[in-house]
Design brief:
Elements: H1 2-25, E1 31-39, H2 45-48, H3 52-63, E2 68-72, H4 78-83, E3 90-93, E4 111-114, E5 121-129, E6 148-156, E7 161-168, H5 175-195, E8 200-206, H6 214-226, E9 230-234, E10 246-251, E11 258-266, E12 281-288
Parallel strand pairs: 1-2, 7-8
Antiparallel strand pairs: 1-12, 2-4, 3-4, 5-6, 6-7, 8-10, 9-10, 11-12
Helix pairs in contact: 5-6
Length: 289
Amino acid sequence: MKKLILITTLYLFCNVSWAAVLSKDRIPVAVEMSLFVYNTHGLPAVFARDNPKERFPKIRNLAEGFDVSLLQEDFAHHDLLLQHVKSPTHIVRGATEDFPKCWVCSGSGLTLISKLEKPYWKIRTTFIPFKQCSGWLTRSNDCFAQKGFQLIVLESNDDHRIYVVNTHLDAGGSKADREVRASQLDKIALTLEAETVGEAVFFAGDLNLDWESPADNLLLQKFVNRLDLVLAQKGGNPSNDWKILDYIYYRSGTNTSISAISSGEVDTLTNRTEPLSDHPALFVNFRIE
């Protein structure tokens, strides 16, 4: 009987010890992730009034330097991005089939480019269209594009999980434009409140909310406070006349802690020292643990 008790005790001790070792091995490790956000000014050349064929290969080269790239206005020259892929990459465009087709209509212009290592990182992407837009042939013509947002889920083998939003809100400075932007922000907030309780979030894009406009800034602050988001980087270099419309926000989750290590604007010039877009290119390097 004593022998049996001794054997049982040794068996339980060994199993508990191994469980402790395995548990330690499964502690999630800290990782770093670089995020690139850029409105590419990807209109057809006749509307862009420049040479997108020169610009887009360079934009693709810029994206090569980051783990995750969130692009906006990738409308008419997506093929140039695909032609210049230099490494194994996951590329997803935001679109649905129920958008009216016409010769000047376009998709959402939203594109995810990921260089995250597989199978360590798993990626799920959905596109959610907005119900409202403002402007047919007026107020920035937003209704010709399928406005909405990409909702991206990044999950690692070490249990890191981050929800990423890539969006491009309606443009224009009228009351009607601002009311539509408010409804679009509400749609994003409702989605995140339903799906990301206690989760880490990256939120980025061309929000068309002017940082210097009291009315726009009020909308922005209400939104980020509603979701407990922290500003990592906003666009608009003092050396140019661009408005501050582009932003990167983030928050930590219950099981995933996020901190911004560094951030700024990427130097984006053509061979003729002209900008690659009419928006700044933003980046943030994050630590995730």
